[in-house]
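Q: What would this chain look like folded?
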Amino acid sequence: MHYSPNTRWDQPLRLGVVSYLNSKPLLEDLAVLLPDADIRLDYPSRLADQLAAGQLDVALIPSVEYFRGFQQNYEIVSDACVAARGPVLSVKLYSRVLPGKIRTLALDEGSRTSATLARILLAERYGVTPDVEPLPLTCSLNDTQADAILLIGDRAMYPTEEQFAVTWDLGEEWFHWTGLPFVFAMWVARPGLDLEPIEAALSEARDHGVNHADEIARREAPLLGLPLPTTMHYLTQNLHFRLGSAERTGLRLFHQLAARNGLAPEGVDLVFSSIARAG
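A: My prediction, written as structure tokens:
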């Protein structure tokens, strides 16, 4: 089945997609399913900025940016997402000191949701509110003297040379603390779109990608220089791609904690499209 959605201004759909391995199952056959779409590849944080600026119509953005962009009247447009129900592997906090002694925190420039999650975990569990600094996408762990460093995406999956006092997998830390899944990214749309064909295509692409996750893992492993068992386990065990009831509960708790720590606005409701609402 092919879909050719347009905005109400009769322009091609501008669709922002993420360049990380964790999103590959959501993108499988998406160009075929949305042949008239203008598909743009970038980092999650940049996609969020482009969506807010009106440069994109639909984008896979960090979940916290949905809450921060509530004045844009965003809508969660699909039950496809990037989530974890335990260790996520690609979101790591590396600390040179014990968590309670962290005073400076370098945050991966590509991250928004994971950066917020790291700050929540430190504040809620250790009473720590470190000074934060950006870690540019071109920089590595060795390029900062911060007490702790957050890395996300593919580069968080490689072994480190430095020995750290503590290494957190943020998906694992959240799950052990709350017992809930964590939603890292989801499809969000600006108002004024015919959402029905879009959400159908996004869900169909996800279903196809999940069913062919082993093929995606084999294709991507040599491109990333990662062992095949790592990419296979990552796409089939570490990650989950459906926004179910438990994921929504986790998402609401994440918003509550982010708002309590001044990292997101209060009073934001989750607005779902028809397929996302039924997921």
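The chain has two domains: 14-82+182-278, 91-178.
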